[in-house]
Amino acid sequence: MKNAEKYKKSYFLPPSQSKYMKWANRDYVAQPPVWCSVDLRDGNQALIVPMSFKEKLDFFQFLVKIGFKEIEIGFPAANQTEFDFCRALIEQNLIPDDVTVQVLTQSREHIIKKTFEALKGVKNAVVHLYNSTSVAQREQVFKKSKQEIIDIAVSGAELIKESAIKYNGNFRYEYSPESFTGTEPEFALEICNEVIKVWQPSPGNKVIINLPGTVEVSLPHVYASQIEYMCENLQNRENIIVSLHPHNDRGCAVADTELGLLAGADRVEGTLFGNGERTGNADIITLALNMYSHGVNPGLDFTNIPEISRVYENLTDMKINARHPYCGELVFAAFSGSHQDAITKGLAWREETKTAEAGWSVPYLPIDPKDIGRQYDGDIIRINSQSGKGGISFLLKNKYGMDLPAKLREQVGYAVKDASDKLHKELQPDEIYNVFRDSFVNLNNPLKYIESNYENVKSEIKAFIKVKIKDKERVLTGSGNGRLDAVSDALRRNLNIKYSLTNYSEHALEIGSKSQAISYVEIKDADGKVSWGAGLDTDIVTSSVYALFSALNRSGLIK
User: What is the CB neighbour count within 10 angstroms for residue 361?
Assistant: First the structure.
């Protein structure tokens, strides 16, 4: 690509960067952070059509249901809808006692005053103050010196502190040096420490210092070192909650967040599915389930991802990508035959060995899809022309109860893949069942089974079977050591065909006197060609006869 030279490094490393890399020696996030949803502010302002009052209220209540204890509800001074929403939550007592709402405000006097008017009577609130600190913002937008930028932050912090006393509420304070990732770390530290001096945090009144990746401009490890530098040098650190708010411009918001937590951060601001400006925010669902996959309870309820997905899409009019981690339609789907085979064998091994207590370990599945409301037969095994016999058999067994013999699975697999290839589409479970049924079950052309009767003659069974072949009905007789063997003898003897019955199995599909049974029969002709058939009936003997007729009709022996 041309003009690459126009893009220069726009981030700043902390002084003595190698000193701030303790995060590199930690291999996973051992405990969940404090989660703060910013769906109703950062996420909402990024929508093509922002949510209505009712939609915001429904979303707020849904976030509470999931388990969020801190929720940024908006920018009350921005417009009347935002102000009214804040007032409605307070006046209608819609905020649970254990939930803290958060509101955003610029460091401007009239905006701060309007913000506190909106919060009058609130039980618990975080007032989130911000002003931009990056080199680009200082030079190009505000045209102010570092000291002038510090003065903006300090004056806002002082007014917030005064207003909190005036309104006599349970207010906590948060400060963001907006565009932190484009700010010199030394200056970001200086301005945060000046705000901390004003707010005087204590064990009972900790202050949140939020370090936003307003625009993601570096590799995640650089952000991690920046966070570690801040964590180790902020004044009164024991009474500071270091918060992260990464954006996803380079596609690394989740990685930024995870490394930032390893670097010492305590709190994360993000959204469901990463909704937000430009490429979005850090996706809290992905972050939480990444922790879950390492055995850490994230403290949020994501046990019903399909429901969360539906609610999110309905309220935001956004669409979830089919490959979105954990949540997308296809993220657990296996079309490849080898993948399907590995998954089905892994699940079978887990069931056979009863090793659940040893922890989850199944090929291609980082977590158990059922833990988040997904299903094995619809979400994992998906069938197209690339699929294998293992996946097709798994689906037929799990959805329809048909436990195909190992040798039959290959023939069924070819039939299903051929159908998918000809239709040039994925086959749904009912379509797969129909292919199996139409290709293998109770086949009656050119040889049709009508009925049969049996007699015990000495040590043998004698069979009288009525068939229809070439539009003519015939009664055939034969004998054998069992009813199916006797029927097979009648067919060989009267139709002058040569084959051997090489495999037979059957099982019930349901429990109960009227349940259906399915039988599977394999035959081999004189040339060694193998053909399979299946039979379905409430009577197990009749189902076995249907299976034999199906195998013969598929074999080409009946002329």
Answer: 10
| Residues whose CB is less than 8 angstroms from the CB of residue 512 and which lie 6 or more positions away in sequence, other chains included | none
DSSP run (H or E) holding 401? none
* Residue 559, both tokens: 């002329």
Give residue-wise pLDDT tens across range 93-131: 999 999 999 999 999 999 999 999 999 999 999 999 999
Query: Is 440 in contact with 532 (CB distance < 8 Å)?
Result: yes
Q: Can you point out the beta strands (E) in 214-289?
A: 240-246, 267-270
Distance between CA atoms of 163 and 403, rounded to whole angstroms?
71
Starting at the earlier edge strand, list the strands of the sheet with 447-457.
447-457, 460-469, 472-480
Beta bridge partners of 283: 271
Q: Which two tokens mark 541?
A: 């003997």
Strands (E), 161-204: 171-178
pTM: 0.81
C-beta of residue 243 within 8 angstroms of C-beta of residue 209: yes
Whether a cis peptide bond, with omega within 30° of 0, leads into 446 is yes
The DSSP-derived string for 441-465 is: BS--SSEEEEEEEEEEETTEEEEEE
